[in-house]
Automatic annotation (TrEMBL):
GO function terms (MF aspect): transferase activity
Organism lineage string: Bacteria, Bacillati, Actinomycetota, Actinomycetes, Micrococcales
InterPro entries xrefs: Glyco_trans_2-like, Glycosyltransferase_2, Nucleotide-diphossugar_trans
UniProt xrefs under Gene3D superfamilies: Spore Coat Polysaccharide Biosynthesis Protein SpsA, Chain A
Organism annotation: Cryobacterium glaciale
KW Transferase (keyword) present: yes
Protein family: Belongs to the glycosyltransferase 2 family.
CDD domains assigned to the protein according to its UniProt record, in alphabetical order: DPM_DPG-synthase_like
Keyword entries, A-Z: Transferase
Protein name in UniProt: Glycosyltransferase family 2 protein
Length: 226
């Protein structure tokens, strides 16, 4: 068997139609950990049939799924990727290689749309504003807070992340910045997802994301002032 260098956490809520495209595009040495978050469309069976390691997380929420994947990982490097085919697993080495080369501690994929309509305008605008605030708060030169990212597993576990909803990627970034990690941004492609969005493509999902993220930002700024 090939040595598993990287575990790829794929939070999954009803992504059966996207999984085949994703799983067949994983680079060699990368293992998929599909975290099923209560899918009703047969996602776990599809994932297992295609050779992925499947874990279940009954607590709903993007962060709950992402964190369960991190806890299930055993490889030295852990990468995260959406399971909706909006991001190409062939881009994963772009976020992973600087970690293996010890050139960075956290690498974030900056989403670069590969077609029109890949990114709903409200989500894009919210993200540009968020990135601007994050640059001001942390001094890290980022332009997107996207879900494709990588870091060392032991480092991620040591961050002790608490958010279990849509604030998880933000908490990871803020905690890493507070711990003076070397944070690097690289370009990754972004295409229209397969199926319906659960977070930023819906009003409810967007409002939850804003609420979760605002609370984290407010706490960080209070911390910085005290
Ligand atoms: N929102 C949400 N996404 C989940 C959950 N569990 C797993 N996911 C997955 O998290 C990823 C991101 O969600 P997505 O709907 O693509 O959000 P978007 O990228 O903002 O449109 C997808 O792969 C989902 O299937 C959950 O409980 N809530
Ligand atoms: Mg998505």
């Amino acid at each position: 068997m090939t040595n598993i260098r990287v575990d790829v956490v794929l939070p999954c809520l009803n992504e059966a139609r996207a999984l085949p495209w994703i799983l067949e595009r994983l680079p060699i040495g990368y293992r998929a950990i599909v975290v099923d978050n209560g899918s009703t469309d047969g996602s776990p069976d599809v994932a297992r049939a295609l050779g992925a390691h499947v874990v279940h997380e009954s607590r709903r929420g993007f962060g709950a799924a992402a964190h369960a994947g991190l806890l299930a990982a055993t490889a030295p490097i852990v990468a995260f990727c959406d399971a909706d085919a909006s991001m190409d697993p062939r881009d994963l080495p772009r976020v992973v290689d600087p970690i293996s080369d010890d050139a960075a501690d956290l690498v974030l994929g900056r989403r670069r749309p590969t077609t029109r309509n890949a990114w709903p305008p409200h989500a894009r605008l919210a993200n540009t504003y968020l990135s601007w605030r994050l640059r001001r708060i942390t001094g890290v030169n980022i332009h997107d807070l996207g879900p494709m990212r990588a870091a060392r597993r032991d480092h991620l576990l040591a961050l002790d992340l608490l958010d279990r909803r849509s604030g998880y990627p933000l908490e990871m970034f803020l905690s890493a910045a507070a711990a003076d990690w070397r944070i690097l941004e690289v370009d990754t492609g972004y295409a229209p997802r397969v199926g319906r969005s659960k977070v930023t493509g819906t009003v409810r999902g967007t409002l939850t994301a804003i609420k979760d993220m605002s609370a984290l930002l407010a706490a960080t700024q209070r911390g910085a002032r005290s």
